[in-house]
């Protein structure tokens, strides 16, 4: 898979290194000569250019890319790169870094963004995930379909503890994708039972999040009454 990364700072280089280890073809783009550090990621292609310029993206042959990652420290640049990648070059998947959570609402399909990753929000979500039981924590937002990756740790008193996955009437536009139980990562089947303390990961429409949280957090005595 060919991946272009706009922004060759610490974040962009780190992403490039991970993807190279997984066998992908990587192009790093940055307009700052000081950011061009070929020796740090020697197996990547490098391009000294402004990723907001059509001529630069033509030189990068963006139409050949399967994924574009807008990873600069400037939200305005990331939005422009995302929009150009999607509308001018038809890149199938565009991932954009959100530096300021206040700008997160802009990072949607109108700007060509398929997945928006807000590092500050993700860090705060991971803190919440570590200390919250019974509360829904949003980990990642997918622009297409207005869906989010959300997590909830099933509380001891949940009415669903001991219930088989196939017997639960999940809200519409909601999919249970993973159960983390201790050190195990389970792909849920209809016969798997939910246990108190399970970390449940869902892809869910934003409009269904409150309904999902209510379903998972309801107490046994409330369900019985």
TrEMBL record:
Residues 137-218 form the RCK C-terminal domain. Keywords: Ion transport, NAD, Potassium, Potassium transport, Transport. SUPFAM superfamilies: NAD(P)-binding Rossmann-fold domains, TrkA C-terminal domain-like. Residues 1-117 form the RCK N-terminal domain. Gene3D superfamilies: NAD(P)-binding Rossmann-like Domain, Regulator of K+ conductance, C-terminal domain. InterPro entries: K_uptake_TrkA, NAD(P)-bd_dom_sf, RCK_C, RCK_C_sf, RCK_N, Trk_Ktr_HKT_K-transport. The keyword Transport applies. Signal peptide: none annotated. This is Trk system potassium uptake protein TrkA.
